[in-house]
Structure formats: C-alpha cells, structure tokens
Amino acid sequence: MWIDTHCHLDAHEFGAESLDVAGRAGELGVGMIVIPAVARANFDVVRDLAAQAPNASYALGIHPIYVPQATDDDLEALRAQVALALDDPNFVAIGEVGLDFFLPMLCEPDMRAKQERFFREQLRIARDFGLPVLTHVRRSQDQVLKHVRQVRPAGGIAHAFNGSFQQAQHFIDQGFRLGFGGAMTFTRALQIRRLAAALPLDAIVLETDAPDIAPSWIHPGRNSPEQLPAIGRALADLRGVPEDVVRAACRASALAALPRLAALVD
Predict the structure, then answer these.
(1) Hey, which residues does 33 pair with through a beta bridge?
(2) How confident is the model at residue 154 (pLDDT cuts 50, 70, 90)?
(3) Facing residues of 176 across strands?
(4) How many other C-beta atoms lie within 10 A of the C-beta of residue 166?
(5) Which of 71, 73, 33, 66 is closest to 52 using CA atoms?
(6) What phi and psi, each to the nearest 5 degrees, are found at residue 260?
(7) Angstrom distance (rounded) from CA 128 to CA 80
(8) Staple partner for 50: which of 56, 124, 242, 258, CB 3.0–4.6 Å?
(9) For the chain, how many structural domains are there in total?
(10) What is the pLDDT of residues 225-250, one digit of tens each?
(11) Cβ count within 10 A of residue 257
C-alpha cells in the first residue's frame, strides 16, 4: 500500500472530481490520502471529504499563507474543532501549519511575527492533544525547528522538505519524518535528490501535495494522488532498491509519523 501523506484533495483544481480521483488512486494502490486543512473555512470540507472517500483521512490547521486573514477566533475554533475531532477515526493530525518566508508579503516584519505566533499556538494545540503536525517549512527550516524544540509536539512531518542534511537530522531528532514528492523527479533538483537518495529510508514519507508540485512527467499539469506510485518508483530508482522496499518502508514511516492512521489502514 502507498500512502499519500499530503494532498489537498479539496482544492478547486479538482472541481467535482475529488472522490473520483481518490477512487482512481485507490485502484492504483494508494490506500490512504491525508487531506490537510488550510483555514477555518475548509475544516468542514476536508472532514466531509474524508468521510466520503474510503481511502482518505484529514488534518486540521491554519496554513501560513492564510494567516494574514486569520484571527484569534480562528485559533480558538481550531482548538474546539480538534477536541471534537478526536472521536473521529479519520482525523489524524494538526496541519497544514508552519512558516513561509518565501512569499514577499509574508516576510514583512509584522507578518513574520503573526506567522510565528499562529504557528506556535498550533504547536501548543498539537502538544496538548498529543497529535503530530504537518509542517510547512518553505525557507523556514531553522525557524520551524526552533519552535518545535521549544513547544515539543508529538512529532510529525516536515512537508516538501528541501533543507540541508544537518537540518534533516535535526527534524529526525525531534521525531519528525521528511516528506518527498514530485520535486525529486526533476534531474535539476540536485539537493532534493541527494537527500532522497541518502537519508535513512525510515525517515522518509511520500506525498504529492496535489494539485501542486507535479512530477516531471506531467509538469506543469495538475498533480494527483494517482501519481504517488510512480513517485515512489522514482525514489526506488534514486536509491537503487526495489519498489517493494520503498513502498513498505514509506508506509511504515507514515504510520509512525501519524499513529492514528494505523487503525484506518490495518
């Protein structure tokens, strides 16, 4: 079984096809798709989608790109929704949360401060409920690590990891796995490919981030969880190991990172 640990299946790019896409991915061996929320407005959307797709689960959180419009009421609503969601077996994590220091509007001093405050509070929610986090770490690995070390949530995944080997080890030391997807299929992505080839396989999880980060063979088209098996084969090729080895190891790594998944896939 393949597990897509990060897929925005509710995105508008999928239109009315979300359930069909999940079904086709399932036929290709993708036994689980984790759908992270990005804002309070789509908490119900990802929950309902996971309830309808037999191979889907969800996470709740406020993405850093949505922090500019977010309010403290949204944080309070998140904490309340998480408390209720603990009774839902499809709920597996806090996410997508983190820091983004790539987009210029998010790099202004006031917005950096707001991002960090929202991230830290969401880490506290994860810690208080014993949940892992799906972290957005775009040009912010060290800052994300700082807050993780201080708040100490129950591990999680550094999504779309593109840092150094040293940063990767620091995340691993904090109980995190590292997410790899379509970016590693591009021959010019030298650092990502080095990381994917050399990091311990039990520290890696696979993801699509669909509809974004399409692999090389469909870029710049819409990405989909249907592409995950081929992405997994690309990782196997990079590492020079059989596909079955990568599939089993990344499945085990995903279940270790997101323990509530185990009841859904076993």
Answers:
(1) 4, 56
(2) very high
(3) 156
(4) 9
(5) 33
(6) -70, -15
(7) 12
(8) 56
(9) 1
(10) 999 999 999 999 999 999 999 999 99
(11) 28
Q: Tell me which residue range forms the domain holding 108.
A: 2-265
The token duo for 257 is: 């990172």
Q: Are strands 91-100 and 56-60 parallel, antiparallel or unpaired?
A: parallel
Mean pLDDT, the chain, integer: 97
Residue with tokens 């990005």: 38
Residue showing tokens 């063979």: 217
Structure tokens at 187: 């021959």
Closest CA to 56 of 33, 36, 72: 33
Task: Enter the tokens of residue 262.
Answer: 């185990």
Residue 202 contacts residue 178 (beta carbons within 8 Å)? no
Closest CA to 253 of 114, 158, 186: 158
Distance CA 113, CA 103 (A): 15
Amino acid at 204: I
Residue position matching structure tokens 């592409």: 227
**C-alpha 234 chain-centroid distance:** 19
The 10s digit of each residue's pLDDT in 166-184 is 999 999 999 999 999 999 9
Q: What is the 3-state secondary structure (H, E, C) of the chain?
A: CEEECCCCCCCHHHCCCHHHHHHHHHHCCEEEEEEECCCHHHHHHHHHHHHHCCCEEEEECCCHHHHHHCCHHHHHHHHHHHHHHCCCCCEEEEEEEEEECCCHHHCCHHHHHHHHHHHHHHHHHHHHHCCCEEEEEECCHHHHHHHHHHHCCCCEEEECCCCCHHHHHHHHHCCEEEEECHHHHCCCCHHHHHHHHHCCHHHEEECCCCCCCCCCCCCCCCCCHHHHHHHHHHHHHHHCCCHHHHHHHHHHHHHHHCHHHHHHHC
Query: What is the value of pTM for the model shown?
Result: 0.97
